[in-house]
Amino acid sequence: MTTIYKICIAAEWQQAERDGRYRGSAVDRSDGFIHFSTAAQAPETAAKWFAGQIGLVLIGVDAGSLTDRLKWEPSRGGALFPHLYGDLPLAAVRSVVPLPLDAAGRHVFPDNLS
């Protein structure tokens, strides 16, 4: 199973849980797809787009359950990033963990990120 990750504001995720699906952030909706990262890409994504931001969660998603709506497309420097065209069904979610900051203001990722 390949796990991909979404970093989002905890309040947005709580709304998704109430709605039964995640429609994406304002940026996702503007771009027309939900941005995800691999385990290797997630720390850079956090540093680039969420620097110093508190109140975030890291959502682990089973990529295989997203079928053909998940596309791997080039982004930063040609690296392939997973993009979901459509809403994220909560059944695909494998984990939801807080993404706190350390003393230096960097996000602390779980040790078992893979």
Explain what this protein looks like in three dimensions.
- By secondary structure, the protein is α+β, with helices and mostly antiparallel strands.
- It has one domain: ADP-ribosylation fold (Alpha-Beta Barrel).
- The strands form three sheets. The protein has a three-stranded antiparallel beta sheet.
- Strand 5 and strand 6 form a beta hairpin.
- The mean pLDDT is 94.
Write a compact overview of the structure shown.
The protein is 21% helix and 32% strand. The protein is α+β, with helices and mostly antiparallel strands. The model has no long low-confidence stretch (mean pLDDT 94).
What order do the helices and strands come in, and which of them pair?
Elements: E1 3-9, H1 10-19, E2 21-22, H2 26-31, E3 34-35, H3 42-49, E4 56-62, E5 70-74, E6 80-84, E7 88-89, E8 93-98
Antiparallel strand pairs: 1-4, 2-7, 3-6, 4-8, 5-6
What tags apply to this protein structure?
three-stranded antiparallel β-sheet, 8 strands, 21% helix, ADP-ribosylation fold, globular, alpha+beta, 114 residues, single chain
